[in-house]
Specification:
The chain is 35% helix and 18% strand. With 317 residues, the chain is an alpha/beta fold.
């Protein structure tokens, strides 16, 4: 049965959650995270390994399969990922595929037919763990569906609701935003509060706004930030617990700070005419590389089918 949300977006309700797997432990934990999400959404799971190489060099899959690493082939990688998914959520329908091409291209193409895409964040040292690889940036910047990158402590974030909140970074053009709708739906699905955050900065040479002009003490910029948050959430369901926050400072720093207490940080990314795919701004780049929790990058506009959870969201416009 179609949901009202799916009809509003003109999307089928049977789109899968796609996970890009590569045999690494972070990607296998991403499979577990995505399996939990698929179970909540009533969606299927599609596990995809995109690579030009026939053999895999690494220890994670070899350990799971009890094979020497030189004997692990591409099909073993998706089979190991499928085993992780079925162990985590036996009731979720799971399919696999191997794509003999570069992951940046294969995964972006897969995003055309996905409700969301989930990627693990690889790292082998203290420095590289802090930085997202080129594949993750390329896919998050060009995908046609929300992309969730599992940043932070994977052992903590492989289970849902570890910290009990979804955080939304509210952009300047947040009215009818796909990122807002995605964040609200995630909070409803997980049964946790939504914290909407917008940063503001006082111009260096601008004095405090006079109370007789603004109607109340305070900075004009802070008031405008609060109004932007309020406008973004004007259609949020009444039964959703929402925390509205304005933080003085740079947007990237504000979002990185609140990510320490979040299960998921949601940010939007807008398409630009004349460019190939999405061009991620500095704020989105910053949180993808440094956030302490998983990050969802939601393209604007997005082809997105909401899960069956009632009348939310209302049709755009």
């Amino acid at each position: 049965m179609e949901t009202s949300a799916a009809r509003a977006f003109g999307e089928p309700v049977d789109l899968p959650i796609v996970v890009g797997v590569d045999g690494s432990e972070p990607s296998l934990r991403a499979v577990e995270w995505a399996a939990d999400e698929a179970a909540l959404r009533g969606a299927s799971l599609r596990l995809v390994y995109a690579s030009l190489w026939e053999r895999y060099e690494g220890a994670s899959v070899a350990h799971d399969l009890r094979k020497p690493s030189e004997e692990v082939m591409t099909q073993d990688i998706v089979e190991s990922a499928e085993w992780r998914a079925r162990r985590r959520q036996p009731g979720v329908k799971t399919t696999t595929d191997v794509l003999p091409e570069e992951p940046e291209y294969g995964l972006v193409r897969e995003s055309h037919g996905a409700v969301a895409m989930v990627l693990g964040c690889r790292g082998r040292s203290g420095v590289t763990e802090a930085l997202l690889g080129s594949v993750g940036v390329a896919v998050a910047g060009r995908a046609h569906c929300p992309v969730i990158v599992l940043r932070g402590r994977h052992d903590n974030q492989a289970r849902s609701g570890a910290r009990g909140r979804i955080v939304l970074g509210v952009s300047e053009k947040a009215t009818h935003s796909a990122a807002v709708r995605f964040a609200v739906e995630e909070a409803l699905l997980h049964g946790v509060p939504l914290e909407a955050v917008r940063a503001w900065r006082r111009p260096l040479h601008e004095p405090r706004a006079h109370p007789l002009i603004t109607g109340r003490p305070g900075h004009l910029q802070e008031r405008q930030a609060a109004e932007t948050v309020e406008e973004a959430l004007r259609d949020a369901p009444a039964d959703l617990e929402v925390c509205r926050r304005t933080i003085e400072g740079f947007a990237r720093d504000a979002l990185l700070a609140v990510s320490r207490e979040a299960d998921l940080l949601v940010v939007g990314a807008r398409r630009r005419q004349g460019h190939f795919g999405l061009q991620l701004g500095r704020v989105t780049h910053g949180v993808l590389h440094r956030a302490a929790c998983p990050v969802a990058v939601v393209p604007e506009p997005v082809r997105w089918a909401a899960p069956p959870s009632g009348a939310w969201p209302p049709p755009p416009g």
